[in-house]
Amino acid sequence: MAGSSMALDKNVKDFLSKIEFEKVIDIGCGSGKYGRMVKELRPDCKLVGIEKDESYIEEFSLNNVYDSIYDFDAHKLIRNADFKTDICIMGDVIEHMPKSQGIDFINYMIYRCKWLIIKYPIRFIQGAVGGHASESHISTWSKHDFEGFDIEEWAEDVPIVLVILKGYL
Questions:
Q1: Which domains are delineated in the chain?
Q2: d(C-alpha 98, C-alpha 102), whole Å
Q3: Which distant-in-sequence residues (6+ apart) come within 8 Å of 26 by Cβ?
Q4: Neighbour tally for 166: CB within 10 Å
Q5: Most CB contacts within 10 A, which of 107, 161, 166, 168?
Q6: How much is the pTM?
Q7: CA distance 129 to 86
Q8: d(CA 66, CA 56)
């Protein structure tokens, strides 16, 4: 499902409205909801999108939303030792990664951003959607998984959770 719940989107927008940023990476951009939100708030922001399902790039005209859009698995970013951004958004994506890969990715990004915004569903069973196997949920997450990080905001609107982590930059 390339779209995501609108629950807690106001929290994300409010947070983005009160901080300064120049560069954002949107992991698993799907329909481009967060990309559009960022561009509405900061039109001059450098916005990079990563969407591993390349059919979504054309279907949702993501080239018109993002300054750069890449069609690969975000986990491949870990090989880029010099990557940095102000904000990393992972909206409804972490549950599609194996838990070990998600933990690795969070640890990688925390060193390379100022803020890491993660939104995910809890207890929401989902298999392939519309022939897209990548849409199946394969890991579960809880507040316990984020205890070692500096949590700026935690919000729940069951079945959706929003966690904003302060990065090291």
A1: 9-14+21-27+74-166 (3.40.50.150)
A2: 6
A3: 32, 34, 35, 38, 47, 48, 49, 50, 66, 89, 91
A4: 15
A5: 161
A6: 0.91
A7: 32
A8: 13
